[in-house]
């Protein structure tokens, strides 16, 4: 059921958009599994004819570009930024292969997109790799999205992940929009939305049913179909909205 805080709702304008996170919102599942990164590391090591001690495999296969990763790169004599980019490139390729094989599917309420797209311009902005996001849109024929953006591969893209609003701001510029909604399933989505001047809509599903969000979204919904309550035409008073 939709919960809605009218005090946090701003007046709607004609150049607003509805943006969506991907993993857990459009695509079922929380994201790329750790095993994918581990196998991607094997790919890079094999290509470079490198062998590493077992104690270095964990830091080198981690999703994070952190001090432990950089220190491990120093021990095997490779440039951390370049090695991280190469491993992420292999992670993205392996992720695409898994998606093509049907390992993950769309969330069952994604059919709501067609109705939402008739009311507003829609876009997709994810912390997942940009090649992965592009593949999901093409593979599942998600033609409703006017703009899609995943993060760039490598350290720079890693640092620009939400809650940094970088990619949300880029999307707003691309769509010539000044405001709207961002629908996500994590606290970082709500924070990024606020930093980008958007209204954060928290989507509570089975995988985050017990999550204590810790931040206050504009609205909380249990299904993408409930977004209709937040997309009523301008001029309808808050008291007339369906809660």
Automatic annotation (TrEMBL):
A GO term for molecular function: phosphoglycolate phosphatase activity
GO biological process: DNA repair
InterPro entries for the chain: HAD-like_hydrolase_sf (IPR050155), HAD-like_sf (IPR036412), HAD-SF_hydro_IA (IPR006439), HAD_sf (IPR023214)
Superkingdom per UniProt: Archaea
Pfam families reported for this sequence: Hydrolase
Family according to the record: Belongs to the HAD-like hydrolase superfamily.
Listed name of the protein: Haloacid dehalogenase superfamily, subfamily IA, variant 1 with third motif having Dx(3-4)D or Dx(3-4)E
The organism of origin for this protein: Halorubrum cibi
